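User: Sequence in, structure out. Go.
Assistant: Echoing your sequence, followed by the structure tokens.
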Amino acid sequence: MAVNADYYAILGVSKTSTLDEIKRAYRKLALQYHPDRNKTKEGEAKFKEVTKAYEVLGNEEKRKTYDQVGHDAFEQGAGQGPFGGAGGPFGGQQGGQYGPFSYTYSTGGQNADFGGFSDPFEIFEQFFGGAGRARRPVYSVTIDFMDAIRGVEKQVTINGKSQKIKIPHGVDRGSRIRFDDYDIVVDVTPDKRFEREGFDIISEKEISYAHAALGGEMQVDTVDGEVTIRVPAGTQPGTLVRLSSRGVPHLRGSARGDHYVKIKMIVPKKLSRRQKELLEQLQEEDEKEKKKWF
């Protein structure tokens, strides 16, 4: 990280941001650049960069010092790390193997709060509870979008041993699941039909101008298969039709998200002679209606 880098800019926040806003910004960036999700050297460097910025701005006293003095109070000097410890990107004495990456870090007695996590290795400990998994062996598995929705069993080979693991329904990209003596981080291949936002599903449905104006029934794909929806007369482009409880099952319990169908109007590039005549007649009628108002 450049010596004069702006910690506020690194986290994408302003100098007037609250600690909660800074924490939310850090969590988002840490998830984006965490080495289990972003396996590039640039991602690893960015992860260290945002964590260092948050270790300063996420602490009220350090933030005050940073605002008053700037980077000089936190940059390396006289053989000391940026927070009073030697070595390592976070200036401390602790370290460990995290998947294929090795890290050194320390709170250095500074009571650092990594966005609600006790250290930067716990970013993905969102599923199935527990702590202390940062130094457990971590493996990755890629599953299809629909398998992530419904759950799936996978045959994997761990340390030369073939075994079945059960991926629960509702997992998402980056979900971390604890098994016997190791953890699995899930990657999910995208689906051309659906987008996922949390436990909600979003898809698009193309309809003609006539169908939008007149309304009617139509078939749409969902994660449960094809269903019939009714589009009211006068539906506008971009309208969202909500299908309750047709989304992603929650990891625990029987609740589900919703499915939102976004209406997209299709304008034909070519018209038959008859279609052109009808549209011209419609245009004439529209002009007559407008004149009635003047």
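User: And one key feature?
Assistant: The first helix runs from residue 7 to 11.
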